[in-house]
Amino acid sequence: MSHENLNFRAAECSIPEIFDAVFEPIGKSGWKSNIVLTICGLLILGAAIAFSGQLYYGIGQTGLHIPVYWGGYIITFVFWIGVAHAGALISALLRLCGAEWKSAVTRVAEVITLFTLPAAGSFPLIHLGRTELFYYMLPLPNNRLLWPNFKSMLMWDVFAVSTYLTGSVLFLYVTMVPDLGIARPRMKGWIKTLYTILSWGWRGTAEEWKRVMEAAALYSVIILPVVISVHTIVSWDFAMQVVPGWHSEVFGPLFFVGALYSGTAAVFTMLGLLLWTYPGFKKVITQVHYDMLGRVWLVLGLAWAYLFFNDFVPAYYAHEPDKMDYLYYNGFGPYAAACWFLVIGNFALPLFCLAFQEFRRSIMPMFVLSIIVNIAMYIERVFIVIPGLEIYNGLNFNTIPYTYSA
């Protein structure tokens, strides 16, 4: 990729040119989009095969054992729920702050939420082992007279994720009504009819725009406390239990800021793929958007680093035995290499790179950095879930290192 493509600049273009760029992907596919779809399809196929093997051989295929009874599924759930939360939250915050550059970014963030949230919610169900009995967690009358245990953290997650999914769908739909109305004349056949129904016959009058803006502002206010409470509940899955590395008062804000941090990285990943697959979007997504969102990402990185180290420094200063064992197990034990990659990939590298405007305005470097950050954020979830369970056993002769498969 040439230097010009790595460091593009805003171009003067008319409204029809912007519409042409935005509607270019509809009904069309090129070799780049086919590559992306093929990779996604292969990943889904591989996951389906692995899940089929679990249904046949049992939950032991995932490597779970005593004392590590939470593993890859819970780690992945926490990671994707964070990415999903950040999408709607970033969109809502930018709308409420009146950021004029938000338009090209908010839709990407909202779509990330719409697709990652159901994926995140599926992992606790798969973790059950007997996935076909997931409805036992719902408060429905049944012939076995079973009733959900509302003291269980799993039940908290069910209600939290379902509430957030409902709010996110409504938030995305309200803001999409004008888009559907504008795209309607370009559609044909039954798709045009569907767009007409979904857009409620949108005509683009001043009164319609006023109502949509008011509704979007209202949903932005509503979705903010929902997002904060949902990810706090997810952090309570761990903080409410007396396990080394889990029982921490800082987990609520740490999980929340970490979700914003990883979610912003996901937005940059999607923007990079979008601009590579459909170069026409460079008329809409410019250096200004990259620079402004990069500044937000830098602030979030600083906030995450503060909370992350604040979780360990007081315990290290006080030499709390359980916490010290946990720290040494991570930093100098079997997870040492991944631990230091986490520190570099989540703290040192992004904060150094994002300090430079030229870096923030470059597509490919920001794309690569976003992938590194989210790999490091996934590793952070591994550190939260696994090591505490391995050292919590206390019977060293009975402790087997966790692996992702049997």
Question: Any overview of this molecule?
Answer:
The protein has 406 residues and is mostly helical. It has one domain. It is built from 15 helices and no strands. It has helices at 3-6, 15-23, 31-57, 72-97, 103-127, 153-183, 189-198, 206-239, 251-277, 287-310, 313-318, 321-332, 336-353, 357-360, 363-392. Helix 8 (206-239) packs across helix 9 (251-277) and helix 9 (251-277) runs antiparallel to helix 10 (287-310). Residues 1-11 have low confidence and may be disordered.
Strand proportion, as a percent range, falls in: under 5%
Q: Output mean pLDDT.
A: 78
Q: Sheet bearing the most strands, described? A: none
Unreliable stretches covering 5 or more consecutive residues: 1-11
Silhouette: globular
Q: What is the H/E order?
A: HHHHHHHHHHHHHHH
As for the number of domains, it is 1
The number of strands is: 0
**So how many helices?**
15
Query: What is the CA-based Rg, rounded?
Result: 23 Å
What is the share of helical residues? over 70%
Report the span from N to C terminus: 42 Å
Helical/strand content category: mainly alpha
